[in-house]
Amino acid sequence: MAFKTLNEGNNPVAVGRERLLGLVIVGLSGDELVQAALHLRRDSTRGHYPIFADTQAWPGQEASQGPILDCLLDGYVTGEDDALTRAEQYWAAAADKTDLPVHNSDARLLSYLLMRPDIDLAPIRDWASPEIYRYPLIEAFGVTDCAELLNRLAARGLIRRQSIVERLRLCPACHGGHALFVDICPNCEGLEIEQDQSLHCFTCGHVAGERAFLAGAALQCPNCRTRLRHIGTDYDRPMEHYGCRQCNERFIDPTIVARCSICNHQTRPERLITREIGRYTLTEQGRVCVLAGMTDEMPSPVLPDGLITPPAFEYLLSWQSALADHHRQCFFTLLMLRMRRRDASSDAPADTQLARKLHELSQRIHHALEAGELATRTQEGEFWILMPQAGEERVRELMQTLETWLTDDSGRPIAGVDLQARMMASNDPRASGADGAALMQRLASTTTERAHA
Ligand SMILES: [Zn+2]
Ligand SMILES: [Zn+2]
Ligand SMILES: [Zn+2]
């Protein structure tokens, strides 16, 4: 064994010359090795690092620990050089990025997968677990509902299910996978049923189980005492091959119910929840996102009222501005609308009317826009509209629509409220070379304004 720094207990040996590249658990096997591996995987900053054990711990005798160790460890190494060579391969897959996202369990799992492009994230089967299948690695990253996390990351396109390992039927009450399928009497729902072929006497019409008809080696109706010799002439055998000792009901097939052995919930088998357990890998989209450190869900730039967020607006305005600066055929108009109470001591009706107008405007403004035009709201009562390729006529038309909205019910300006509309075209000298933020700043601080009359 070629480990220079053999530590006591389960202290792992560090791999790496300039910086820590991985860890080797030395001198442990069986359950102790599992516990040491879990401990290292739970580490919130290094849980995704390559973690090996020395070859002496190769699970031979303790084969029962093999599957869980396969999930937690990156394999077994013969010495420090072997560990170093292999750890470097994991980091190469991550473009040697040392600051992979690890701020939550989603990020840790995605960073882990980024470093292991050739493996599938596989579950282990554990009969003692309520869901039967477990992902020990994801559990070590601090997740209680692994299926929820996997479904969520797959829905976002960051991971993909490579194959299905099992299709489970889970209890609708506790989501456990330990359902018992029990045959019961369709009449009294009791368990006291038995297989018992029915006989039907043609003479008197009596139907009962075959046992009741047995008279020595012959058959005799227990009701009318007729000897039954020929099937089809004296008697026949109806389809009801089951009998209930509890209620004497005779039936063709018993009813099957699913009974949860965890919470005792009883239901029809078709009411059980289907869950597919699978093996997962990182997608290309996932790889790009982890490398960029963007593992969290991005909020949509489009708000429910059809406006876009101010950062998205600023970004697109910068883009339009750059286009207009470099391509003569590209131009745009930027419009700012501002509604403010004229003075703080104004009366309540103006406040109410202003609040109502602002709400109405934010709900309606995107209906006034044409395809390609965008609007945002930077503060209460301040709206911005970006109109790419809009000629004077289009600008005038939008202004007219908005001016109709910016009045009270009788078409007069709202009392006590100042309304301003300012605009800047991309051929305005002030617009040249400016990014989105600068353009908005210049338009907001401009002194020549078009006041709403
Ligand atoms: Zn249950
Ligand atoms: Zn019964
Ligand atoms: Zn009979």
From TrEMBL:
Question: What InterPro entries is this protein classified in?
Answer: TackOD1
Q: Which domain of life is it from?
A: Bacteria
The Thaumarchaeal output domain, residue ranges: 103-282
What this protein is called in its record is: Thaumarchaeal output domain-containing protein
From the broadest rank down, the organism's phylogenetic lineage runs: Bacteria, Pseudomonadati, Pseudomonadota, Gammaproteobacteria, Chromatiales
